[in-house]
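Long-time lurker, first post. I've been practising inverse folding by hand and with some scripts of my own, and I keep getting stuck on stretches where the structure tokens seem ambiguous. Below is the full token string for one chain I'm working on. Before anyone asks, I'm not after the true native sequence, just a reasonable design that respects the backbone. If someone could post their per-position residues I'd love to compare against what I wrote down in my notebook.
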């Protein structure tokens, strides 16, 4: 028996420094760190999901193309089913995009932004090019256009509204980018139901556009991992070559489809989140030493006079979990998800306590 086997010796060099994704888990804490929908899933919708799932759905492979779900998404987005591809969360779709178009080439991101773009680019052996955002966290579009026009760039990714800043980029600016590059431009609209404008109307004019969406935020299906993308048929055709055959399980397909059939209930929850977002933003802005940044998403980025690590730890000790984002581009910054009225009130109360204990 070989007792000296070293798995790391077989791994690509650039992956050796990659740390596995490890989200903090504190089940007793009020969880405001992951931009999830804070409201319980509607019981009536849940019953409908279970009523449509039968024993055969567990014993057989799921529909590899998710035909019925794509038809529902076509009604929701106005995009033909042939222009829709579903995935095991938008994370899988991002990885598929990188593997299909970005492998061995350059891709462009606009930091600070969603960190997993960098991870999946690394997994796909793509080379990251950064175009940092401006001081107000808006996209430096002129610089981005210049970089995206380079022959070596194959993929450009814009999170819109952006995570973690909440900043929205107008579609007309994105259209200017699309017209000036031969790269695939990915607009990640994970938070679009909470604000911002969709780029879906641009699909008809720009075959190099991909629009990403998810059920994890506005529609409360983070636990079932359902995402989808909208793109021209030629783009979808290439992506299908790398898609796993049965990537979205039968239960998730049914759940997402039933959600689409019950949109008014979820729109009510979205309205509650938007109302709470305004209250939370006002509360944060009123705290001494706190700077809250305007947002079009279901979270708020804020900066304090204290080190972010101290604020994060102080809140966790008080039973509230948020996200510490401190880094070169986000000095002393943290991000809090908009929760229920009770959760938001508790967060503000505990944050006041942390700030009062700074001495």
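-- Answer (accepted) --
I ran through it position by position. Result:
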């Amino acid at each position: 028996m070989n007792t000296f086997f070293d798995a790391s010796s077989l791994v690509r060099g650039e992956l050796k420094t990659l740390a596995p994704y490890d989200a903090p888990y504190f089940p007793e804490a009020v969880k405001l760190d992951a931009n999830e929908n804070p409201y319980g899933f509607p019981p009536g919708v849940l019953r409908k999901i279970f009523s449509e799932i039968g024993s055969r759905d567990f014993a057989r492979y799921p529909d590899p193309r998710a035909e019925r779900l794509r038809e529902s998404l076509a009604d929701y987005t106005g995009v033909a089913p042939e222009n829709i591809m579903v995935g095991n969360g938008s994370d899988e779709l991002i990885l598929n995009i990188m593997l299909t178009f970005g492998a061995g080439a350059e891709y462009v991101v606009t930091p600070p932004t969603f960190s997993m773009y960098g991870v999946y680019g690394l997994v796909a052996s793509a080379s990251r090019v950064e175009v940092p955002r401006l001081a107000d966290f808006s996209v430096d579009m002129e610089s981005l256009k210049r970089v995206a026009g380079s022959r070596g760039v194959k993929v450009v990714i814009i999170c819109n509204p952006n995570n973690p800043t909440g900043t929205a980029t107008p579609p007309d600016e994105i259209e200017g980018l699309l017209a000036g590059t031969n790269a695939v431009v990915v607009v990640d609209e994970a938070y679009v139901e909470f604000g911002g404008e969709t780029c879906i109307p641009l699909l008809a004019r720009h075959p190099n556009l991909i629009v990403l969406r998810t059920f994890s935020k506005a529609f409360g299906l983070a636990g079932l991992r359902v995402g989808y993308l909208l793109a021209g048929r030629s783009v979808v055709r290439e992506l299908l070559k790398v898609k796993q055959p049965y990537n979205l399980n039968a239960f998730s397909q049914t759940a997402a489809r039933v959600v689409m059939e019950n949109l008014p209930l979820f729109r009510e929850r979205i309205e509650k989140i938007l109302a709470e977002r305004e209250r939370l933003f006002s509360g944060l802005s009123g705290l001494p030493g706190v700077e809250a940044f305007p947002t079009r998403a279901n979270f708020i980025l804020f900066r304090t006079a204290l080190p972010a690590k101290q604020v994060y730890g102080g809140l966790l000790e008080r039973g509230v979990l948020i996200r510490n984002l401190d880094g070169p581009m986000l000095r002393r910054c943290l991000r809090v998800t908009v929760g229920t009225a009770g959760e938001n009130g508790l967060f503000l109360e505990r944050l006041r306590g942390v700030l009062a204990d700074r001495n």
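A couple of notes from the structure itself: The two ends are 59 Å apart (CA to CA). The CA atoms of residues 145 and 177 lie 6 Å apart. Happy to go over any region you disagree with.
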